[in-house]
Amino acid sequence: xxxxxxxxxxxxxxxxxxxxxxxxxxxxxxxxxxxxxxxxxxxxxxxxxxxxxxxxxxxxxxxxxxxxxxxxxxxxxxxxxxxxxxxxxxxxxxxxxxxxxxxxxxxxxxxxxxxxxxxxxxxxxxxxxxxxxxxxxxxxxxxxxxxxxxxxxxxxxxxxxxxxxxxxxxxxxxxxxxxxxxxxxxxxxxxxxxxxxxxxxxxxxxxxxxxxxxxxxxxxxxxxxxxxxxxxxxxxxxxxxxxxxxxxxxxxxxxxxxxxxxxxxxxxxxxxxxxxxxxxxxxxxxxxxxxxxxxxxxxxxxxxxxxxxxxxxxxxxxxxxxxxxxxxxxxxxx
Length: 334
Known about the structure:
It contains 9 helices and 15 strands. It has helices at residues 52-66, 74-79, 89-104, 114-119, 132-139, 169-183, 278-291, 293-301, 325-330; strands at 8-10, 26-34, 37-45, 147-150, 153-156, 189-193, 196-200, 209-214, 224-230, 233-239, 244-247, 250-253, 268-275, 307-313, 319-323. Helix 3 (89-104) packs parallel to helix 7, helix 6 packs antiparallel against helix 7 and helix 7 (278-291) packs across helix 8. The longest helix is centred in the first third of the chain and has 16 residues, at 89-104.
């Protein structure tokens, strides 16, 4: 449903040589590949543990539940209408959050949009030539109210309904790993999975973690457009300026509207959402891209638990930005 845009973590942490208690805390940082992208985990741990092997194991467990590209994953079994599959806790958490975000966003976020994203060339299935007739035939299988969980099983109104949690799964991956770190007594960390970020606690000098919002004019670089301070929050950017292709003679943006069935065409280049966790920010960032600039501004202002930062292009091609009051306070540079 959406691309994964690079948010990078600016971890400006100094090492101080003294005999204070803080000297017993070691900064641990490692990175790797996950979910078709990258991950970076940074934390302080007074036991000086390198937990990368355990993190890698957790990422594999997550993929076995949520991935469309792992054969035999819970999600693929659900999509294949395997009546024997039992939903695991990861699936249930993501499904419940997805339903809530879909409700709050009036269906602009919809995790049943998989047939459309695949048909437009962004899924695991073969690309189809698109027409209004083809789109209408697929829209009958799109709609988050067409699925529900009952007694540990996913119930579909139509077996052709297909699920895709790409627009929220990486956000929850961050939260999932963060919850695990806290279970190990690690409370000060920042986690970046494919551009989705969650931060908890503070850095060594008691300052907040800082995260850069990707500059849409340099999509292939780690270049910051703004820097945001996070206080036990998640930050996610969704956008259309990086991932697109030509399909049926037209330029196709990655964000597909579950309402119209067509790629979204709007002046909004990217939507960054600040929320209580990365999963929430992830889902609503996608919803904002589907809504477009005008509607997403109205929506984000009406949500007391969300803050937003939008980058858009005027009809003259000039970049402009819009930020909610809360986001303005969170931005630490201009």
